[in-house]
Specification:
Number of domains of chain A: 1
Protein name (chain A): FeoA family protein
Number of strands of chain B: 12
Distance between the termini of chain B: 78 Å
Low-confidence stretches of chain A: none
Number of helices of chain B: 25
Radius of gyration of chain A: 12 Å
Largest sheet of chain A: 5 strands, antiparallel
Distance between the termini of chain A: 17 Å
Helix content of chain A: 10-25%
Strand content of chain B: 5-15%
Helix content of chain B: 55-70%
Number of helices of chain A: 2
Shape of chain A: globular
Strand content of chain A: 35-45%
CATH topology of chain A: SH3 type barrels
Keywords (chain B): Cell membrane, GTP-binding, Ion transport, Iron, Iron transport, Membrane, Nucleotide-binding, Transmembrane, Transmembrane helix, Transport
Oligomer: heterodimer
Keywords (chain A): Iron
CATH superfamily of chain A: Ferrous iron transport protein A (FeoA)
Strand order of the largest sheet of chain A: 4-3-2-1-5
Number of strands of chain A: 5
Structural class of chain B: alpha/beta
InterPro entries (chain A): Fe-transptr_FeoA-like, FeoA, FeoA_core_dom, Transcriptional_repressor_C
Low-confidence stretches of chain B: none
Organism (chain A): Stenotrophomonas capsici
Shape of chain B: elongated
């Protein structure tokens, strides 16, 4: 599944970030911000209108992502403490 | 080492406390300007070490990476590498990292280290880290990074003393780091994990306060309620609290003008001084209270971490109109006055969103339109109750506000459709930990805003005011003049010529002439109308009183409505235009704003007049 499908307050582990096109600067930035394999992320909050943006905790930092950005991050939920 | 003064550059992630550290290092000895050709702020200051050596310190824009995603980050990269045109390469880099957010910030420090420049790491906010139970072994961190690491607390007095001493001792003999092969993003994270393992012990969960605050402040209901209260407070403050100060400044300059007029012999020199220069300077300074109050709130909200949260709450709504969550406060402030509103767009990172916000800000109904609306509504709209509860005059005023907002949304939406650059606007907004704003940083920030306004915008406003004075004063009225002096001036002649173009809107020549001084400030159009109709009135209220019977008899309802609609759009404010010029650093954008707003005003007023006339109001 991808980060954009994560239920509210659920945690997951990052698999990888997928480039939507060659040289995807947004995907590169997501990796730089810490969305890399093995990192634990949690969906902390959703925006009040249309459930967007999504607020993720990764490491000690909170980042708000739009749905299209979060959809680039593949995650797994097995073996993650809730 | 190049030159006598060593050049240091502060680099670091956004929210690393870099600017607070910069304030701490340089005190008030800073210079704020823009990098050549762009509107990214360039801050430089001087610092003296215990040895007496002087250092030039440059505060680079915050960056997450040296692979830039924005203009700010590109400038940081180029400057660090010494490639930025017109800027000397820094002799050493001070990389500022937040001790409570090491995972993210160490990654950037590793990237900076690969540049091979002499470098010191400032481990900032160590006090906050200790409070959270994060233990950092500084010697081990130094060993793992291979560069000196110094603990700092940027918001505390003397919190950077150790750093200054270390710089002073080290910089003269700092060796360059061996240039390293850049590695993939994943690699950096692996290195960071290894460093954290070796040098840092941290509890698994941190930031309890952040969790609690975010649960309330980002809540779909309570979060929006809080935001509404905060917005209301800001709006109240900018709109109401500034008024007595502004009245005081106006009265002060009025008195100064009268004093000068009484002392000087009557003639063009006295007129230039009183009506041109003193009135012009007063017209610049009168904006200061609003600017200072608005920026006090914005800086405090930004520092405390709430501003990004507000952007989070509003992002979806604003994005659908082609703006961003951060556009909200500038637009709200523009209801008081577009000048501070446009200046506050500096907090919008995406240049496209920022430009769109600047271009629609003049459509918000600012307080200077109120005297004009008050005059026209009073003269043409009967004060009767409609639908049982509503006052018809109030409804019209409300409609004028709504028309401005809807036009702004339509305009920004249209600009989004026609933008050549259709690439995705990423949000990727960091919501930093909450912290108490530091009074010193607030004071420095406010001082900078005030100086930017007075120096950069003030000059243009003053020059245009003097030009306007010239148009209104020359040539003087002949000996046997039967009309008010303005009628004979260049402005009067222009007004008469304009009447032909404005006839389809229902504007007579008196209105056209009043529009010219109205360029100085919209409300001046009211007192000018009074002058043109040869009425004597002491102030705006008296002018409205005296004018109301004249225009309600002399103008048709269609003309009145048309003029109201004109004022929704027309950029009748040289101060706003001057601010747009400064904040976009482009005459082209200013010209675009002027032309599109006048075109919209002309078309909307034309339609209003012709429809009203067809319906029998002509």
């Amino acid at each position: 599944m991808t980060l954009s499908e994560l239920p509210l307050h659920a945690s997951a582990k990052v698999e990888d970030v997928q480039d939507l096109h060659p040289n995807d600067a947004i995907a590169r930035r997501l990796r730089e911000l810490g969305f890399v394999n093995g990192e634990e992320v949690r969906l902390v909050a959703r925006g009040p209108v249309g459930g967007e943006p999504l607020l993720f905790q990764v490491g000690f930092t909170r980042f708000a992502l739009r749905r299209s950005e979060a959809a680039r991050v593949r995650v797994r939920t097995e073996g993650v403490s809730a | 080492m190049s030159g006598a003064v060593a050049r240091l550059a502060l680099v670091g992630n956004p929210n690393s406390g870099k600017t607070a550290l910069f304030n701490q290092l340089t005190g008030s000895r800073q210079k704020v300007a823009n990098y050549t050709g762009v509107t990214v702020e360039r801050k430089e200051g001087r610092m003296r070490g215990p040895s007496g050596r002087e250092y030039a310190v440059l505060d680079l824009p915050g960056a997450y990476s040296l692979h830039p995603a924005s203009l700010d980050e590109a400038i940081t990269r180029d400057l660090c590498r010494g490639f930025y045109p017109g800027e000397a390469a820094p002799d050493a880099l001070i990389c500022v990292i937040d001790a409570t957010n090491l995972r993210l910030h160490l990654r950037f420090a590793l990237e900076v280290r690969e540049l091979g420049k002499p470098m010191i790491v400032a481990l900032n906010m160590v006090d906050a880290a200790r409070r959270r139970g994060i233990e950092i072994d500084v010697p081990a961190l130094e060993k793992a990074l291979g560069v000196p690491v110094v603990e700092t607390v940027a918001v505390q007095r003397n919190g950077a003393k150790a750093l200054v001493e270390r710089i002073d001792g080290l910089v003269p003999q700092l060796a360059s780091q061996p240039l390293q092969q850049p590695v993939e993003a994943g690699e950096h994270h692996a290195q960071v994990r290894a460093i954290l393992e070796a040098a840092v012990r941290m509890p698994s969960r941190t930031g309890k306060i952040d969790d609690t605050l975010d649960r309330w402040l980002l809540h779909p209901v309570y979060g929006l309620l809080t935001l509404a209260v905060v917005m209301f407070l800001i709006f109240q403050a900018v709109y109401a609290w500034a008024t007595p100060l502004m009245d005081g400044i106006e009265a002060g300059f009025g008195w100064l003008g009268e004093f000068a007029a009484a002392k000087l012999p009557e003639g063009p020199l006295s007129s230039l001084l009183v009506d041109g220069i003193i009135a012009g300077v007063g017209g610049v300074i009168v904006f200061l209270p609003q600017i200072l109050i608005l920026f006090f709130f914005i800086l405090a909200l930004e520092e405390s971490g709430y501003l990004p949260r507000a952007a989070f709450l509003l992002d979806r709504m604003m994005a659908s109109a082609g703006l961003s969550g951060r556009s909200f406060i500038p637009l709200l402030s523009s209801f008081a006055c577009a000048v501070p509103g446009i200046m506050s767009t500096r907090s919008i990172q995406d240049p496209r969103d920022r430009l769109a916000t600047i271009l629609v800000a003049p459509l918000m109904t600012c307080s200077a339109r109120l005297p004009v609306y008050a005059l026209l509504i009073g003269a043409f709209i009967p004060a009767k109750t409609v639908w049982g509860v509503f006052n018809q005059q109030g409804l019209v005023l409300f409609a004028l506000y709504v028309a401005g907002i809807l036009s702004a949304l339509m305009m920004s939406w249209t600009m989004k459709k026609f933008r050549r650059d259709k690439s995705e606007h990423p949000l990727m907004l960091e919501l930093p930990s909450y912290r108490l704003p530091n009074p010193r940083d607030l004071a420095v920030g406010l001082y900078e805003r005030a100086m930017i306004f007075l120096k950069r915008v003030g000059g243009i406003i003053l020059a245009l005011t003097i030009l306007l004075w010239f148009l209104l004063s020359f040539p003087g009225a002949p000996e046997n003049a039967t009309m008010p002096a303005i009628d004979y001036s260049f402005a009067g002649q222009i007004g008469h010529a304009m009447a032909v173009i404005f006839a389809p809107l229902g504007f007579n020549w008196q209105i056209c002439i009043a529009l010219i001084p109205g360029m100085g400030a919209r409300e001046v159009a009211v007192s000018s109308l009074a002058t043109i109709y040869a009425l004597s009135a002491a102030d705006d209220d008296a002018a409205i009183q005296a004018l109301t019977p004249v225009i309600s008899d002399g103008w048709t309802l269609a003309t009145g409505l048309s003029l109201m609609v004109w004022f929704i759009y027309a950029p009748m404010c040289i101060s706003t235009l001057a601010t747009i010029r400064r904040e976009t650093n482009s005459w082209k954008q200013m010209a675009f704003a002027t032309v599109y707003l006048f075109a919209a005003a002309y078309l909307a007023a034309l339609v209003t007049y012709q429809v009203a006339k067809a319906l029998g109001a002509g």
